[in-house]
Specification:
Layout: H1 3-6, H2 10-31, H3 37-43, H4 48-51, H5 53-76, H6 78-97, H7 102-131, H8 136-143, H9 145-164, H10 169-172, H11 174-188, H12 202-225, H13 231-251, H14 267-297, H15 302-330, H16 332-348, H17 359-384, H18 393-427, H19 429-436, H20 444-473
Helix pairs in contact: 2-7, 2-9, 2-11, 5-6, 5-7, 5-12, 5-18, 6-7, 6-11, 7-8, 9-15, 12-13, 12-18, 14-15, 14-17, 14-18, 14-20, 15-16, 15-17, 16-17, 16-20, 18-19, 18-20
Length: 494
């Protein structure tokens, strides 16, 4: 093939730059805030159960808005939706930087998530339409770079900003990137016409959004009231479950449901979806616990806590491509099972943490966890598409992304409740709140008890990883080449 044909034309390169800039912002904001939570709890005098909503609210809004992206692209056109998404994310970032309380920050993070949730799927749709199926591999390799670098750079960058400037700058850094992305998208992205052939499932959205929010809120209230006996806990959980059940019933009858439940008739997709959900729980839940352990129990600065989280991203980035190749060549079952087992082993070492655990030991354990994440995540995601037609791929992408974000929000909420409850039981509510808010200095005995509280919380993450081995083991063991998907059929993007 001549060299000229291997080059990407300028229009495609410009579109890739626009999409990469937007993706960088959206992905960094899922990881960069983690190391700032302790600082936020001090500044706003909030407990772990409250401040976790800064992360949980963002993840929930991501999950809620993802189903809107396909309908919005058809109705308004991809360029217009992308510009609106960038503008919402940028507005949310500016408001977050000027938040005056924990409540205001949580509200602004939800607004930011509404923009960030559509940036990635709409950006992928733009690239799919611009590149065509023949060059999707090369183009998605470029667009996928932020997904590899985000978990590595996010905590480190966030830690450096919080330690040397102010937590407000973790949101302000989005402003120049967002303005450049807005200008480039308005200037270089090709407009596409909208149509009115697709319907938006308003009833399904009205059931899904409050249902998820109530479930997560109910779980977070467990830590506030000290158990499941509070009226707010039961009202929220029961109400959320009823609304979620209503959403499931609605989705089986709607002509164009937000989540196509017919996908779950495929056995492989169902097991892969379960693995993706559990991966989201342990990924985001553990990323919530780790920086808090380093900052609260070890007294480390935010930059050091962020640096200590980097081994997981490095391990995942190093082995993701190999995992995808092995899954294609040998089938996803054993690759995914081994990955989830490695994820569990790396997490197990954190269940034994103390107030003076070796940093080298903890870094190595997190690197092992990252390797397991790389093998487990890539092979499970690849397996989810094996038996689907190309027309089903966009719906499957939306469903699996929603499940991952829901899993992440539930993981953060549950792990925060467990941690808060453990700290209260071991050193008392007043002492625990004072130490977390930076008002009091912990004694050596209290530090050891806090470390044990974190260790107990990591057991929940370990259990999630171990549970993830089960659906992984039921994935196909045959190579991807034997999959019934017709490779020559063009990729449909919604």
């Amino acid at each position: 093939m001549p060299a000229t044909k291997e080059r990407l034309e300028p229009a495609l390169v410009r579109a890739a730059v626009v999409v990469v800039l937007g993706t960088i912002m959206a992905i960094l904001d899922t990881t960069i805030v983690a190391v700032a939570l302790h600082r936020l709890s001090i500044d706003f005098r909030s407990t772990v159960s409250t401040i976790q909503w800064v992360t949980t609210g963002y993840l929930l809004s991501l999950a809620i808005v993802i189903p809107l992206s396909g309908w919005a692209i058809h109705r308004l056109g991809a360029k217009r939706v992308y510009v609106i998404s960038l503008a919402l994310f940028l507005l949310g970032s500016i408001l977050c930087a000027f938040a005056w309380s924990a409540t205001s920050l949580i509200v602004f993070r939800v607004l930011q998530g509404f923009g960030g949730g559509m940036i990635m799927p709409v950006g992928q749709a733009i690239m799919a339409r611009t590149a065509g199926p023949q060059r999707m591999g090369k183009v998605m390799g470029i667009v996928g770079v932020p997904q590899l670098l985000g978990p590595i750079l996010g905590p480190v960058l966030g830690g450096l900003i919080v330690s040397n400037i102010s937590w407000r700058w973790i949101f302000i850094v989005n402003v120049p990137i967002g303005l450049v992305a807005l200008w480039l998208s308005r200037t270089y992205l090709v407009p596409t016409s909208g149509d009115r052939d697709h319907r938006f499932d308003l009833a399904g959205f009205a059931l899904l959004a409050p249902g998820l929010a109530l479930i997560v809120y109910g779980l977070s209230q467990v830590g506030v009231v000290g158990g499941f006996h509070g009226h707010s806990v039961w009202f929220s959980l029961v109400g959320g479950l009823v609304l979620s059940a209503g959403f499931i019933v609605r989705s089986t009858r709607a002509l164009e449901p937000l989540i196509d439940l017919r996908l779950f008739k495929d056995r492989t997709f169902s097991f892969a979806a379960a693995g993706i959900f559990l991966t989201g729980v342990t990924l985001y839940g553990t990323m919530f616990l780790l920086p808090l352990y380093y900052q609260i129990d070890r007294g480390d600065a935010a930059w050091k806590a962020g640096l200590m989280m980097a081994p997981q991203g490095i391990g995942a980035a190093m082995f993701m491509r190999l995992a995808g190749s092995l899954a294609d060549k040998h089938g996803p079952r054993y690759v995914a099972t081994g990955g989830m087992a490695g994820l569990a082993i790396g997490t197990y070492f954190y269940t034994t943490v103390g107030a003076h655990s070796s940093y080298y030991f903890l870094g190595t354990a997190l690197f092992i966890r990252g390797i397991g994440l790389g093998f487990g995540m890539m092979s499970v995601v690849a397996a989810s598409y094996r038996n689907l037609t190309h027309a089903q791929v966009p719906k499957a992408t939306s469903a699996t992304n929603i499940l991952r974000q829901i899993g992440g929000s539930l993981g953060v909420a549950v792990f925060a409740v467990v941690l808060d409850t453990q700290i209260t039981q071991r050193i008392g509510a007043r002492a625990g709140a004072a130490i977390q808010n930076g008002i009091a200095q912990a004694s050596p005995t209290q530090l050891e008890q806090i470390a044990r509280a974190f260790g107990h919380s990591f057991w929940w993450s370990f259990g999630t990883c171990a549970l993830g081995v089960i659906p992984a083991f039921f994935l196909p063991r045959t190579p991807i080449a034997k999959s019934p998907v017709v490779a020559s059929e063009p990729l449909a993007v919604e």
